[in-house]
């Protein structure tokens, strides 16, 4: 195996997170990877920091209007032109466990056409907080995998129905079959779930790799911040803002594109209710 993982990281400001992420990647036990940063108009000195501290990192510049999905797609296109066989999408506000790349390669060799995600740990407590989900369209329920597993089974691969874009390993064969992320319908949130649902329908397996771990900051997400100060302005953002986790337009588009046709009316009604009223309950 003589190829390398191309890690695509879209960034906009928050250079301290980017620095911490890149420093953690520098400590990987397996260094067979390249990092491509897509800097979408940062104004906090990110560009200078990358040039001075991480000259080995490739930096692509956006116009300031890419958001997550178009930024990731720009990086993927660049990597594919360079012959990349494996793509990993990653957010800048994560810290990688030193064995992440090593364990991704190991399980990729066992499942060469599968998409692999990482087990997420809270960066502050070091406790596992996300180990994948399984969506049941018929019942409109999501089963979290992690709470169902005894401690001694929190290892290896666990099948899921969708994966987040944080530490998502995508073989080139997947991209060649289903294309890039859908930046027109989903410019920021839910593009990763849409992509992995699309891949699953196309016949590709999805797993969370519990041996590959990421440290994340759950309180730093845009939606968590919108929910932390509950008021009608933030309620509006929750439902309609591009970075709102309850964005009704994105949810509708996601459902119409991915949900089996017989279940669409119930899924939409259930989802709208949760988004309209759940904001004030959580």
TrEMBL record:
Task: Report domain Glycosyltransferase 2-like positions.
Answer: 6-115
Keyword line: Glycosyltransferase, Transferase
Q: Does the keyword Transferase apply?
A: yes
**What InterPro entries is this protein classified in?**
Glyco_trans_2-like, Nucleotide-diphossugar_trans
Identify the stretch annotated as signal peptide in this record: none
Respond yes or no to whether keyword Transferase is given for this record: yes
Which branch of life, at top level? Bacteria
The protein's matches in Gene3D superfamilies, at most eight in alphabetical order, are given as:
Spore Coat Polysaccharide Biosynthesis Protein SpsA, Chain A
UniProt-listed Pfam families: Glycos_transf_2
The text of the family note is: Belongs to the glycosyltransferase 2 family.
Q: What is this protein called?
A: Glycosyltransferase 2-like domain-containing protein
What species is given as this protein's source? Pontibacter amylolyticus
């Amino acid at each position: 195996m003589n190829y390398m993982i191309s890690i695509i990281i879209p960034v906009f400001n928050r250079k301290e997170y980017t620095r911490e992420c890149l420093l953690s990647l520098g400590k990987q036990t397996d260094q067979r990877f390249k990092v491509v940063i897509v800097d979408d108009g940062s104004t906090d000195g990110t560009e200078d920091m990358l040039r001075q501290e991480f000259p080995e990192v490739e930096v692509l510049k956006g116009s300031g209007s890419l958001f997550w999905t178009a930024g990731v797609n720009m990086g993927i296109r660049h990597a594919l032109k360079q012959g990349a066989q494996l793509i990993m999408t990653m957010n800048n506000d994560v810290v990688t466990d030193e064995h992440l790349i090593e364990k991704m390669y190991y399980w990729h060799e066992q499942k060469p056409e599968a998409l692999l995600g990482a087990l997420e740990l809270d960066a502050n407590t070091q406790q596992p907080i996300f180990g994948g989900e399984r969506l049941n369209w018929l019942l409109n329920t999501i089963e979290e995998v992690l709470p169902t597993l005894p401690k001694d089974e929190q290892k290896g691969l666990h099948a899921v129905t969708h994966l987040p874009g944080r530490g998502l390993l995508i073989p080139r064969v997947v991209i060649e079959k289903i294309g890039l992320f859908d930046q027109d319908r989903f410019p920021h949130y839910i593009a990763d779930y849409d992509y992995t649902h699309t891949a699953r329908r196309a016949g590709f397996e999805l797993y969370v790799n519990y041996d590959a771990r990421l440290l994340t900051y759950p309180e730093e997400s845009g939606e968590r911040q919108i929910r932390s100060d509950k008021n009608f302005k933030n309620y509006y953002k929750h439902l309609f803002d591009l970075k709102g986790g309850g964005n009704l337009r994105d949810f509708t588009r996601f459902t119409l594109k991915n949900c089996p046709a017989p279940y669409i009316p119930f899924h939409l009604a259930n989802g709208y209710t949760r988004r309209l009223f759940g904001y004030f309950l959580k």
